[in-house]
Write a structure and sequence with these properties.
alpha/beta, six-stranded mixed sheet, single chain, binds adenosine-5'-diphosphate, binds magnesium ion, four-stranded antiparallel sheet
Length: 233
């Protein structure tokens, strides 16, 4: 299968509370291969978001190793992590995290402000518009979050996550605030992006129904991998 896009070896995370270390991730071994749609599943409090934040360079581990494309990225500087995050990674959150009183188009363009390689304003706008059409919001580009449904807001967030052409998309409980019909639409969108654009996706969820949309799954409980299904669909 070649070098995994991501490999974790004995990854640990402990939080310092007062003068005790509270272990949250207790030695995670994991491989994420390019092109997969992987569900990270398990009960609330098990460490899924902590793990995803480390995978996405929003947080750092306190032990073990994180290899990205075979390169050890465990001990990178904060700046180097921020660069990798901007260039390689897209995030989608449960609560959409859109800027209020800001159009869908401007929300999608926003991460480009922090990109190293910029295109002309006209090219960037055309790219953001194409992403909004890609997620079915071609007619809503000027709408603000408060003028859109939850499902539409999450699709803006997905377009925004794609604007820097990431290799990997992390979605933490992306349907947690959506009704079941809208959830299914959003999950189908992830499947399409995975199948048609080849984007590697990690979907964090406590729900088996949501996990069923993935090609494979890791189950995490109390900070440990307790099982998984690794069948390629
Ligand atoms: P999940 O996403 O699976 O629900 P989390 O990763 O959010 O789990 O949390 C795992 C555990 O880590 C929980 O017990 C939580 O209270 C604890 N935890 C998460 N973030 C922090 C933090 N910043 N400081 C201390 N404990 C934390
Ligand atoms: Mg969580």
């Amino acid at each position: 299968m070649g070098t995994p896009l991501i490999e974790l070896r004995g990854l640990q995370k402990a939080y310092r509370l007062g003068d005790v270390d509270v272990p949250v991730l207790k030695g995670i071994d994991m491989e994420i291969h390019e092109g997969t749609l992987l569900a990270l599943m398990g009960p609330s409090g098990g460490g899924k978001s902590t793990l995803m934040n480390i995978l996405g360079f929003l947080d750092v581990p306190t032990g073990g190793q994180y290899l990205l494309d075979g390169r050890d990225v465990t001990t990178l500087s904060a700046n180097a992590r921020a660069d990798l995050r901007n260039e390689r990674i897209g995030f989608v959150f449960q609560n959409f995290n859109l800027l209020a009183r800001t159009s869908a188009l401007k929300n999608v363009l926003m991460p480009l402000e922090y990109a190293k390689r910029r295109q002309s304003a006209r090219e960037e706008r055309a790219w953001a518009e194409s992403l909004l059409r890609r997620v079915g919001l071609g007619e809503r580009m000027d709408y603000q979050p408060s003028q859109m449904s939850g499902g539409q807001q999450q699709r803006v967030a997905i377009a925004r996550a794609l604007v820097n052409r990431p290799k990997i998309l992390f979605a933490d409980e992306p349907t947690g605030n959506l009704d079941s019909k809208t959830s299914e639409e959003v999950l189908r969108m992830f499947q399409e992006l995975n199948e048609q654009e080849g984007i590697t996706i990690v979907l964090v969820t406590h729900s088996a129904e949501v996990g069923a949309f993935a090609k494979e799954a890791y189950h995490i409980k109390d900070g440990l991998i307790v099982g998984g299904t690794y069948t390629e669909k």
